[in-house]
Design goal:
The chain is of the alpha+beta class and about 180 residues long. Helices cover about 55% and strands about 10% of the residues. A four-stranded antiparallel beta sheet has the order 1-2-3-4. The chain is elongated.
Length: about 180
């Protein structure tokens, strides 16, 4: 069986990135605000997926030369361990979620309470946060400097960020952990 490890603590990462983001936003650092804002949302969504599904383990496998990190709660991880030589289908069948990496849309789709209630406009706004400049991931911003971000793009990004955070606060009462 592929090597398992304990799940990362995305909740603590979220809390730290929230502080970092607030500092960068206050100082009008556009690139770092957009970059850390994306990470903040990523960690928030991953925290919800993990808590909602009681995920404790992550197992990384390769599928078609692509790395996939499946997430398991304790019960399903024990079932996976009981399979002598797990196949790709076993990893898929028994997982309680997967690491969406830095894709905010894939993360959102794993939270039914959110995905079923977000509007098409909300998806478009989240997609802008996911790929804010030239259809590239927010993680690519780390190689960008502030002058490359037009003020209008940053203003739209802030508007979309606020929209999604407000959506989260409205929806979180529907979450059951």
């Amino acid at each position: 069986m592929a090597q398992a490890r304990d799940i990362e603590n995305y909740e603590k990462a979220y809390l730290d990135r929230k502080k970092d983001f607030a500092l960068m936003r206050k100082n009008r650092r556009k690139v770092m605000s957009m970059y850390l804002g994306g990470i903040l949302i990523e960690c928030l969504l991953k925290t919800i997926i993990i808590k909602k599904n009681k995920i404790q383990k992550t197992v990384t496998v390769f599928e078609k030369s692509r790395r996939v990190a499946y997430w398991y709660n304790d019960e399903n991880y024990k079932k996976l361990q009981s399979v002598k030589k797990p196949k790709k289908s076993d990893y898929k069948r028994l997982n309680n979620g997967f690491n969406p990496e830095h894709n905010l849309i894939l993360a959102l789709k794993q939270i039914n309470e959110f995905y079923e209630n977000i509007t098409e406009e909300g998806i478009k706004r989240l997609e802008m946060l996911n790929r804010p400049i030239n259809n590239q991931s927010f993680t690519s911003l780390r190689y960008t400097y502030d002058d490359e971000i037009p003020d209008e793009v940053y203003r739209q990004w802030e508007e979309n960020f606020t929209y999604f955070i407000n959506f989260f606060h409205k929806m979180r009462k529907n979450l059951i952990f």
